[in-house]
Amino acid sequence: MDPTSERENSSGQLGETSHRSAVALHINGTPRTLTLDHRTTVLDALREHLDLTGAKKGCDHGQCGACTVIVDGRRANSCLLLAVAHDGARITTVEGLADGDRLHPVQEAFLARDALQCGYCTPGQICSAVGMLGEAADGFPSHVTGDGSAPARLTAPEIRERMSGNLCRCGAYPRIVEAIEDVAP
User: Fold this and answer.
1) CB of 55 within 8 A of CB of 65?
2) What keywords are assigned to this protein (predicted)?
3) Which helix (H) or strand (E) holds 88?
4) Mode of pairing for the β-strands spanning 74-77 and 90-92
């Protein structure tokens, strides 16, 4: 590899020899093609290239869940996903959950239960809740569920376990669990 291919020039920009590729992503139902540096995460592609700022950069290490989006039907921390590795993926952000002016039932429940305080983690919490509801419906077990031989009942302990990857510094957890219970089957 040419040692200059990854260097920044004096203005902080990557040199013309940086490694970039065209990446096709289906974002909230709309096909988008971006030419991205190979190191660009899905989170940065959403925020910096598509102006979709719902997913937040919290820890940038996959530990807080503020960047949670739904990728090909499964929730994922977008700060850990390289965009080039997800060429062709279908990504749903919090902005894509609503159907026109009608909010997604999880979004409605979060509003009805006042399941937020500062709101920074809320988009990730909502996307994680939507993904978690799908995982439970598909029979994915959790630590609380046990061996997975029976369908998971989404009790408060089950919801807390399944949502444990999403942190809220304000401590809105009781209301978040209540909102999810409101929409759980």
Assistant:
1) no
2) Iron, Metal-binding, Oxidoreductase
3) none
4) unpaired
Return the closest-CA partner of residue 30 out of 117, 93, 78.
93
Q: What are phi and psi of 95, to 5 degrees?
A: -65, -25
Which DSSP string corresponds to 40-70?
-BHHHIIIIIS---SS--SSSSSSS-TTEEE
159 neighbors 173 (Cβ within 8 angstroms) = no
Q: What is the dihedral of CA 118, 119, 124, 125, to 10 degrees?
A: 80
Q: For residue 110, with 0-12 CB atoms within 10 Å meaning exposed, 13-18 middle and 19 or more buried, which class applies?
A: buried
Show Cβ contacts of residue 99 under 8 Å, excluding neighbours closer than 6 positions: none
Q: Does this model's pTM top 0.90? A: no
Q: How confident is the model over 73-128, as pLDDT tens digits?
A: 999 999 999 999 999 999 999 999 999 999 999 999 999 999 999 999 999 999 99
Tokens 């399944």 correspond to 162
Q: How many H-runs (helices) and E-runs (strands) does the chain carry?
A: 5, 5
Instruction: Say whether 128 sits in a helix, a strand or coil.
Output: helix
CB of 151 closer than 8 Å to CB of 142 = no
